[in-house]
Write a structure and sequence with these properties.
The chain has 201 residues and is mainly beta. The protein is 13% helix and 40% strand. It has helices spanning 64-69, 128-132, 166-171, 189-198, and strands at 8-18, 21-27, 39-42, 45-51, 57-62, 80-85, 104-114, 117-123, 142-145, 148-153, 159-164, 182-187. The strands form 2 sheets. A 6-stranded antiparallel β-barrel has the order 1-2-5-4-3-6. A 6-stranded antiparallel barrel has the order 7-8-11-10-9-12. It is globular and about 50 Å long.
Length: 201
Amino acid sequence: MFSGIVEQAIEVVALRHDEGNLHITLRCPFVDELTIDQSISHNGVCLTVVSLPGDGTYTVTAIKETLDRSNLGGLKVGDLVNVERSMKIDGRLDGHIVQGHVDTTAECAEVETADGSWYYTFKYNVDPAMARKGYVTVEKGSICVNGVSLTVCDSEKDSFRVAIIPYTHDNTNFCQIEKGTKVNLEFDIIGKYLARLSEFK
């Protein structure tokens, strides 16, 4: 479980395809604190550390299901990936409850500057059946974009906007997001549970 508060945006240094899997190697400043089998959020996708070669990098593996549902299959060497280690049970929840299970992807439709901050608009395909199950945004609700916990503004049927402060822009891969960029979305788990419970009334 994660909070959506990104620790760092780190660089992809190697990619290796193995049948339907993708092995992703990243350079990380806190690699000495990692262990094999540890769960880390990568652009909002929970992946397991499978290799620690001792050269300042670690490797995770994304399977076909993950690649089909996320933007990880489009990574290139040199790209930045937002990472967050799992939440400590005795810590503060500064973002919102994030599982690291990406629901769908969205495309950046517009980036606007706003006197020192930015507005990003994202559009996604809406499946009415999934929308009834809580896979939607709501005004001032929580959304996880590439692993970043954000507050929705201007929630529409198939799009939403988020406001990005300079710190978030400079310390996550939002600095690389532009019109046409694909991002990962995880909708609010509380909304999903409420929608599911309403089916039993």
